[in-house]
Amino acid sequence: MNILEGDIRKLLPNKDDQLKWIARSSHNIKRFSLKEVEAVTKKYKTLIGQGSFGEVYKGILEDKIMVAVKKFKHMHNKTKENFAKELLVHSQINHRNVTRLIGYCLEENASMIVTEFISGGNLSDFLHNSNRSMCLDTRLRIGIECAEALSYMHSHMYTRVIHGDIQPANILLDHDNLNAKISDFGISRLLNMDKTLYTMNVVGSIGYMDPLFLRHGRLTTGSDVYSFGIVLIELFTRKRVNREDVNDNLADSFTKSLSTGFRMLRDMFDAEIAEQSNMKILEGIGKLAGRGATMSTATVVRRVLEKNQGRVFTQQPYQRERDGSTSLPRWKRRPKCRQCRPSKR
Q1: pLDDT at position 27
Q2: Catalytic residue status for 224
Q3: How distant, in Å, are the alpha carbons of 167, 310, 322, 329, 330 from that of 326?
Q4: Which intervals of the chain are annotated as region Disordered (predicted)?
Q5: Domain limits of the chain?
Q6: Which terminus of the chain is more solvent-facing, meaning fewer CB atoms within 10 Å of its CB: N or C?
Q7: What is the pLDDT of residues 30-42, one digit of tens each?
């Protein structure tokens, strides 16, 4: 028995659960001692975030790798079980658009998860708490990268994973290129082959939650896709989801605008990208995101976004060079926005 398996047996009281989670996990992660974590975080002097679960600290490992340390508080039995499940779900995922799990710390009065540190903050803060510009192609690329990660979790893993809380606050961006990475697997679920999970526990964040789940407690990969549709609306409109009034939220307003005409739809999109030349692309994205719970799969969403991304670079006419030849306009060969670049496949 390795160290991780021993820790899981301590955290999960039910033997069937122990075997299930151990069998599904990978063990290529490090167990940190409490002293090591204290050294990495300079004795917890590097706080960068907090929530109901606990705090998040920034740290530097001996090999100079930057990490984020998620420290849990109030470790009662249910919290221990959730900690074990987050650890094991995250340990299975290996995708460039998902934050990488590096290790964990488990001692009598301390439970922590250590992941790679993403320097650019989260998508929610970028959209709503900053003045930085974001061109249409960059938004499409972020959407494609998130859709790729969801497609991987839903269709290409041995055991499918439902994230359960897809929202801009859980999508991290690197500082230089705004590459997107999905994070926070605290309420994620592993799926059996029937692709459906029934639960009475509240899963997700108000404003992003699948109506089917709210009504029946039926959690599927489609629940993630619905939440991602709301994220896309938020990404292209740069408007906040109305968390207080579920009956008049951003999704409802956007759906109404789709059926009321061009002008109202254009007013919904962020003015930075709502140029006349972009409207065909935005209308296509709007119809996709406005489908909500019927958006199909993350793979289909990714393909639609990729198709529209291609149009960004081909919608303008050719220009004639001095020698009489024609070529794409200079801005398309070398986009002005430094974040503009095709998604890496």
Answers
A1: 56
A2: no
A3: 44, 20, 9, 9, 11
A4: 312-345
A5: 3-116, 123-333
A6: C
A7: 889 999 999 999 9
Q: What is the distance between the alpha carbons of residues 345 and 336, in angstroms, rounded to a whole number? A: 22
For residue 110, give the 3-state DSSP assignment: strand
Q: What is the pLDDT of residue 106?
A: 85
CA trace torsion 227, 241, 267, 252 (10° rounding): 70
pLDDT band for 160, please (50, 70, 90 cuts). confident
CATH number of 123-333: 1.10.510.10
Tokens representing 204? 């997700």
Q: Which CATH superfamily is domain 3-116 in?
A: Phosphorylase Kinase; domain 1 (3.30.200.20)
Task: State pLDDT tens for residues 236-292.
Answer: 999 998 755 445 678 888 888 888 877 788 899 999 999 988 999 999 998 888 776
In this structure, what are the phi and psi dihedrals at residue 67, rounded to the nearest 5 degrees? Answer: -135, 160
Helix (H, G, I), strand (E, B) or coil at 223: helix
Catalytic residue among 165, 184, 210, 270: 165
pLDDT tens per residue, range 21-76: 544 555 578 889 999 999 999 999 999 988 777 899 999 999 999 999 999 887 66
pLDDT score of 318 more than 50: no
Report the half-sphere exposure of 165 (CA within 13 A, side-chain side).
Answer: 16
Considering only CA atoms, give the Rg of the chain: 22
Q: Concatenate the DSSP letters of all residues of 177-204 into one string.
A: T--EEE---TT-EE--TT-EEE-SS--S
Render 32-96 in DSSP notation, one character per residue: PPHHHHHHHTTTTT-EEEEETTEEEEEEE-TT--EEEEEEE----HHHHHHHHHHHHHHHH---T
